[in-house]
Amino acid sequence: xNTKILDKLLNLIYLFEKESxxxxxxxxxxxxxxxxxxxxxxxxxxxxxxKSYYCKEDVIKHYLLNSYLTFKTLESIRNDNELYxxxxxTHNFIKNEFEGVIKIIINxxxxxxxxxxxxxxxxxxxxxxxxxxxxxxxxxLFDYSDSDSxxxxxxYIFKDSKSYELFLYHYTINENKKTxxxxxxxxxxxxxxxxxxxxxxxxxxxRNWLVDNNFKNTNSPLNTFYSPKSNKKYHFYNExxxxxxxxx
Length: 248
Prior knowledge:
The chain is 62% helix and 0% strand. It has helices at residues 4-14, 29-48, 53-80, 82-86, 88-111, 116-122, 132-139, 161-174, 180-193, 203-212, 232-244. By secondary structure, it is mainly α. The radius of gyration is 19 Å and the shape is globular. It has 11 helices and no strands. The two termini are 25 Å apart.
């Protein structure tokens, strides 16, 4: 199992408060982490793809346990170090980054029909350290009587469950970006044009759906255009779409 991205990301989070470690980079520490989220999602997805259910559980356990142990170690350092404890920016970043990693793990669990909450309990990870509100908001979208189906009353705007999973993948990557509104507008427009979001779902309906289902609001109308299909953004979208629909 290749966990190079996970190991690198956790190490970077651990070194976050050490200014000397970042002197050679030309970007802020905050911006530096954005690119790792997409790579982490892809790495975890690849490690899960094609494996048996029990092998998938082992992969999730590895990612979740290592993420939690890193967070716990940093919390111990914070509690023992007065300067670290008083650095609210550092503390909030590490907490938010940990929650971001957990969201990526949760979203992959739903995509592959894995019971995240049971794994967390078996690993004896305190629920209070995990954003279970996010887990519950996603759980109600899925019908656990069939791990491959999604509750119709919640996901009526999408063509099928794979379309929702494709949306969730891109949403997870983009939700914390400064360009979130532009990214989610692009995603809506391209999925709408390709029929993955149903025809009746006009922009205002989509924005209301985001709010009703605990996704981040755009706070203003969607952009009215999207970039040509020849650009890098479309190629990334198209590659991920092909991967999600490969076995359909």
